[in-house]
Amino acid sequence: MSTAEVEAVLAQLEGSWDEARDRLFSLLRIPSISAQPDHAADCASAARWLAEEFAAIGFTTEIRQTPGHPIVIGHYAGPEGAETLPHVLFYGHYDVQPADPLELWESPPFEPRLVEHPDGLRVVARGAVDDKGQVVTFLCACRAWYRATGALPIRVTLLLEGEEEVGSPNLDAFIAEHRDELAADVALISDTGMWDRTTPALTTQLRGMVYVQIDLFGPSRDLHSGMYGGAALNPINALTRVLGDLHDDAGRVRIPGFYDGVAELPPALAAQWQALGFDEAAMLGAIGLPAGSAGELGRPVLERLWARPTADLNGIWGGYTGAGSKTVIPSEAHAKLSCRLVPGQDPAAVLAGLRQFVAERTPPGARIDIQDLNASPGVAVPGDGPHIAAAVAALTDEYGKPPVMMGCGGSIPVVGSLRRLLGLDTILMGFGLEDDQVHSPNEKFDWSCFKGGARSHARLLAKLAGRG
Amino acid sequence: MSTAEVEAVLAQLEGSWDEARDRLFSLLRIPSISAQPDHAADCASAARWLAEEFAAIGFTTEIRQTPGHPIVIGHYAGPEGAETLPHVLFYGHYDVQPADPLELWESPPFEPRLVEHPDGLRVVARGAVDDKGQVVTFLCACRAWYRATGALPIRVTLLLEGEEEVGSPNLDAFIAEHRDELAADVALISDTGMWDRTTPALTTQLRGMVYVQIDLFGPSRDLHSGMYGGAALNPINALTRVLGDLHDDAGRVRIPGFYDGVAELPPALAAQWQALGFDEAAMLGAIGLPAGSAGELGRPVLERLWARPTADLNGIWGGYTGAGSKTVIPSEAHAKLSCRLVPGQDPAAVLAGLRQFVAERTPPGARIDIQDLNASPGVAVPGDGPHIAAAVAALTDEYGKPPVMMGCGGSIPVVGSLRRLLGLDTILMGFGLEDDQVHSPNEKFDWSCFKGGARSHARLLAKLAGRG
């Protein structure tokens, strides 16, 4: 009930930013790349790091093994009477994307630095914002409560996984097996962004994903294109022919049934997003592209990013890729393809449609395998209710203006899992910015966003406890 | 005039196959991969090897530097009166293709082995047949003449280059600068194949080539497909869309003007090829493909291979190609494309058409560069005249049946250069087989083909001298 208490917690935060930076850097130095088997020990290290840090501020933490990388579970019982207050399940992930292409990093990806920039200081490292930095904002907020008041004001359960970047293959089973242990009233995730550097946001709509690897096999061995060209199926020719047909001239995806269940945006939400005045030309200009260079013709960019499904090739390879020329017809060619899904699309149906799309275009003599690497539905979370109201109040206090209620083009499949398996809605309160270069070289997290994130989490704990 | 003389030369060959094998193996052990700069010293070694071997049998040889790998020149003056006999210019190349993918070789590519096989012994190594093995058949024939009779029966000039597999960028200039030194009456090349293991062939029609690298540039950095998918141009999507359009549904190449100058096969030649009874199903079945899996609908396979132009993608790469998934929209994507050309097509016009094809399909926001790596026209050589008659006679004596006059799907650009710059026609007498895995892992040269090649060259020297 005391603003003075919140002010004390915030003062504690303000007095310990150097310590927070050191803490963040020690986590960022661990190259916990979940996709690469030789980094398994690093993933285990990052899990241990988190378990120890939260244990140091009163959590009971445990590292749980899975068939993949471990999951960290933590419990904080809260003060006396906390049973009557909201119980928060905080989810985050300690794994990161591969750092390649390494040569494009201005400093090594796992040697974090605080870099001066015209927009302000920024932390540069793989995982700076996705998601280690954002997890540490929550850790720092809890630590400040613990130091300033001796306790957190509410019950908190932690669920910190190490396989988010590879599609969380073991998470759903873990959640299902530990339903009782993970029981809470609301989930909280910091893995999304602000509207801009000074305007907070809550995310209420997330795209899902179907991610596949497509392997096309043709002749039983590599061939000389002079001796076989014009007679033998060329797997690269065939693969480009199949994949080049993914979109029609209006930018719509040609996979059969792809748009089944995709609703048109409600006019009120469309108007709200339109009113945000988002500048597509500026967004794309910053990466050297003109407006309208991708997506469905005639739809506003925020709708294309937040409320429309896509199909993007994320990788392709086959044949000779070295210097100069080699006149080979290779025996196989490969691609990685991801479809971003919106609420209403069924990932299994999209995958079936993709298989049909490929089968219909597979030429005689070719065999195409499709490996399902990842599938999760798009998710919408409520934009109102007491928990969201607490987050709106915390952000409004911190930033002096209410948060934008926005969509997100990316996927956080766990939001759907928490809803389905635990019946929980999620507060998606994140502090990233559009230029954070997530999944790219030189990933960064603005230091002001880190600080604002930690302060906002400190305020949110108070609001949820009715003490802010 | 003496068959006894030829028999003595052949007897000399028959008595020295072990020595011939050792000689061939010592050349095959040199990894003279012209495309890879770190093998430059190996290319120089292979040139030295050839210069020394031919010098040992009476040639005056010299190694000439070029801006790339060196060229070996050799002269053999011939016996008294040789001025009245045909003067042969023998062309070959000592460079080889890269050996990757290395893991598919059953033995290391530069450790030649003589391997038992149901079809007979075979030499397995990179360059076994293309073209080191075939060059050594000629070397052995010359050596047998030198040993058995003390001299070669005619004048011979050697032109042995080390850049054939990278498009011979320095050869034409060299030939033009050394016109007088390279003067001859007819050229001879062994870089083609037999009709089958027991039927010799002369090749009279060769496809040319345009080889390009296509580089597509999109956003200025790699992007997260969740944050940008549906808004930012995806270079892999764009590249597959451009390249997937290369062929129409009838297998014709869509490059503007591609078929300009391509003549229909003369009915007589078409009938001759048809009469060969070539088994497309067997050829393709051997590499796991059904008949009719590529090329222009409705044309016989030999016509498609020997007399029709093609467009084959030889390599493609972009984005994430490692294990698992990475949701990246890469900033660029690349491909290598080669068009096989037939006589009548102008390589410059095909290249211009290709640039137009790509430009017409380049989406807004993309930049596509086309690097011209190689361009040479298709070539037809005469199928009659005294020099060809000598080759027909030599092969008929050796194999007991006349050679098939065939086309070749591959390119030997030097044939066009020798015609244009020196006014020479070329005898294309080669001893490869269709299953030699040229440019592929486990390249081989049948030992019986090697022997028959050396014996045929020995006979040809006699026929050209009027002594066979």
Which characteristics define this entry?
homodimer, 468 residues, alpha+beta, Aminopeptidase, Alpha-Beta Plaits, 2 domains, 9-stranded mixed sheet, 4-stranded antiparallel sheet, 14 helices, globular
- Largest interface (CB < 8 Å): A-B, 102 and 102 residues
The CATH superfamily of the largest domain in chain A is identified as Zn peptidases
Structural class of chain A: alpha+beta
Label the overall shape of chain A.
Answer: globular
Number of domains of chain A: 2
Question: Count the strands of chain A?
Answer: 18
CATH class of the largest domain in chain A, named: Alpha Beta
Count of alpha/pi helices of chain A: 14
Radius of gyration of chain A: 24 Å
Please mark out the parts of chain A with pLDDT under 50 across 5 or more consecutive residues, or reply none. none
Rounded average pLDDT of chain A: 95
Termini separation of chain A comes to 6 Å
Descriptive report:
Two copies of one chain form a homodimer. Chain A is an alpha+beta fold and 468 residues long. Helix content of chain A is 33%, strand content 21%. Chain A is built from 14 helices and 18 strands. In chain A, strands 1, 2, 3, 6, 7, 8, 15, 16 and 17 form a nine-stranded mixed sheet that branches. The first copy, chain A, has a four-stranded antiparallel sheet with strand order 11-13-9-14, covered by helices on one side. Chain A has a three-stranded antiparallel sheet with strand order 4-5-18. The first copy, chain A, is globular. Chain A starts with a helix and ends with a helix. Strand 11 of chain A pairs antiparallel with strand 11 of chain B, so a sheet runs across the interface.
